[in-house]
Design brief:
It is an enzyme of class 3 (hydrolase). The chain has 341 residues and is an alpha/beta fold. It contains twelve helices and twelve strands. It has two domains: 91 residues, Trehalose-6-phosphate phosphatase related protein, domain 2 (Alpha-Beta Plaits, 2-Layer Sandwich); 224 residues, Rossmann fold (3-Layer(aba) Sandwich). It binds magnesium ion.
């Protein structure tokens, strides 16, 4: 068990925030997913695609008020469409109920609380009663429920004097948002969070996009959730399945890493700046997710089934003239060379 003495303390971004920081160590081999789509197409030949999507910053824009991180009707329709063709799961740090309230699609699977609250039965057509659905819940951190409620109350108490700080109870984890806190008070937020966690040695804290994430120290994360879903849904066969995970945050790196280590799967980072990442490709922002998902539909759900070779060639030719958005065109020279996944 991790204790407070060896647990990492909350670290606030100073000047260069997580979302703004750059690291070229792997960014240099992380090209645009759209301009490199031919590589994804090639890797998906004769494989079933399973799609994993983060929510905040991936399907919805990052906004000042996390309660208002709504996805657009167009994005909802797009996700609904891809879910008709590919098994699709949302993997979010939000509580499962809250992310469902945002997404509002019953066709897909949901893993809330950074994968610690998985409901894998919603898409089962036979599982329409609440009793049946609840029976298929997987909650590896259920023993922490009371503790999370308690730490959430403490965090609300200690942050209420810090203007702009908000605490979001995500059931099996807690988010302390400081996006609206004056920069000079960021360290104070980290300090009060760390102080509270001294009394909760089995909880840990990590930083995200202007948010501190407090969660149990159990060996479970979004990567484990992806592995669990692939296994429980019967998509463990790496020969015939290509998992694709799209996400924007540090917690999504656990999923990117799992796919990279499986040597089967494609991580796509959503970021408007290059970052150190375990992902293979990058998209600038949710607007480019909106471009990629229909591409996947056109190519994987239709083209490969109809006349793969010629249409694929045509598509690759069109990619050679890829100029979709400023954030992509700068990577035009980086799509050369094979990336094995
Ligand atoms: Mg996110």
């Amino acid at each position: 068990m991790t204790t407070s003495s060896n647990r990492e303390n909350a670290k606030m971004d100073s000047g260069s925030s997580d979302e703004d920081s750059t690291d070229n160590s792997r960014a240099s081999i992380c090209p645009s997913a759209i301009c490199s789509f031919d590589q994804i197409v090639a890797s998906a030949q004769n494989k079933k695609i399973v799609l994993f999507l983060d929510y905040d910053g991936t399907l919805s824009p990052i906004v000042n008020d996390p309660e208002k991180a709504f996805m657009s009707p167009e994005m909802r329709a797009t996700v609904k469409n891809v879910a008709k063709h590919f098994p699709t799961a949302i993997v979010s740090g939000r509580s499962r109920d809250k992310v469902f309230d945002f997404v509002k699609l019953t066709e897909i699977y949901y893993a809330g609380s950074h994968g610690m609250d998985i409901l894998a039965s919603t898409a089962d057509s036979d599982s329409t009663t609440k009793e049946t659905r609840e029976a298929k819940l997987f909650q590896p951190a259920s023993e922490f429920l009371t503790m999370i409620t308690e730490v959430s109350k403490s965090l609300i108490e200690v942050t209420k004097a810090i203007k702009g700080a908000t605490v979001e109870n995500n059931k099996f984890c807690v988010s302390v948002h400081y996006r609206n806190v004056d920069k000079k008070n960021w360290k104070l937020v980290a300090q009060v969070v760390n102080n509270v966690l001294q009394d909760f040695p089995s909880l840990k804290v990590s930083s995200g996009r202007k948010v501190l994430e407090v969660r149990p120290t159990i060996n479970w994360d979004k990567g484990k959730a992806v592995e669990f879903l692939l296994h429980s849904l019967g998509f463990d066969d790496s020969e015939n399945v290509l998992p694709i995970y799209i996400g924007d945050d540090k917690t999504d790196e656990d999923a990117f890493k799992v796919l990279r280590e499986r040597k089967n799967g494609c991580g796509i980072l959503v970021s408007h700046v290059p970052k150190k990442t375990e992902a293979f490709f990058r998209l600038k922002d949710p607007s480019e997710v909106m471009i990629l998902l229909p591409l996947m539909l056109n190519i994987f759900a239709v083209v490969l089934l109809i006349m793969p070779s010629q249409l694929e060639i045509d598509f690759v030719i069109s990619l050679n003239n890829c100029h979709v958005g400023d954030g992509i065109s700068q990577f035009l020279g980086e799509t050369e060379g094979a990336i094995n996944f």
